[in-house]
Design a protein that fits this description.
The protein is mainly alpha-helical. It has 5 helices and 4 strands. The strands form 2 sheets. It has a two-stranded antiparallel ribbon with strand order 1-2. A two-stranded antiparallel sheet has the order 3-4. Helix 2 (64-72) crosses helix 5 (127-149). The longest helix is centred in the N-terminal third of the chain and has 25 residues, at 17-41. The protein starts with a strand and ends in a 25-residue tail after the last helix.
Length: 174
């Protein structure tokens, strides 16, 4: 019996569930990249949280920020956020009284990114391109995270294992 997955037709007699999910994900990522391009065309910048989660301690960054910055030649401004865990406890969007300190680091421009730019054109969030260029993407995001770490007070800096103890799974996005 034909069905839909997020607006995409799916017929289990014609394709595997896993293949349909991969196709839906690819379509979502193409739209995600198109939205970035629309924002850039309007002269807008992006705000990215490279950890992909909320946590007290800084943790290893995900490669998405590097993919976008390297593909579009964007400057990255590292920002350290101290104290938000006391103002926004748990998953509540409502702030408690408190103090958050933001520190802005030196921008990482094209010259800083140059060693990490892939030799061949690539599409952000494309699984094959991510596999091919992962080492370069991770190298750039590691540099970004190192700069953020230097902007944080001790309780928020990297732990020895760079694990955050933060929210995991789909709860990262709530």
């Amino acid at each position: 019996m034909p069905r839909e997955i997020l607006g995409r037709p799916f017929d289990p007699t014609r394709e595997r569930w896993e293949d349909a999910i991969v196709a839906v994900w690819a379509r979502m990522m193409r739209r995600f990249v198109a939205l970035h391009e629309e924002a850039f065309a309007l002269g807008l910048d992006l705000l990215v949280f490279p950890q992909g989660t909320r946590s007290v301690r800084l943790s290893k960054g995900h490669i998405g920020v590097a993919e976008v910055a390297l593909r579009y030649g964007k400057t990255v401004v590292p920002v350290g956020c101290n104290g938000s865990d006391h103002v926004y406890p748990g998953s509540s969007p409502f702030a408690r009284p408190g103090r958050i300190v933001y520190r802005f680091g030196e921008p990482l421009g094209p010259e800083d990114a140059a060693p990490f730019v892939p030799d061949a054109p690539f599409t952000p969030f494309d699984p094959q391109d991510e596999a091919t260029h992962r080492e370069r993407f991770q190298g750039f995001v590691d540099l970004i995270m190192e700069r953020i770490d230097g902007l944080l007070d001790e309780p928020y800096r990297f732990s020895d294992d760079q694990e955050s103890g933060g929210v995991r799974g789909s709860h990262r996005f709530v």
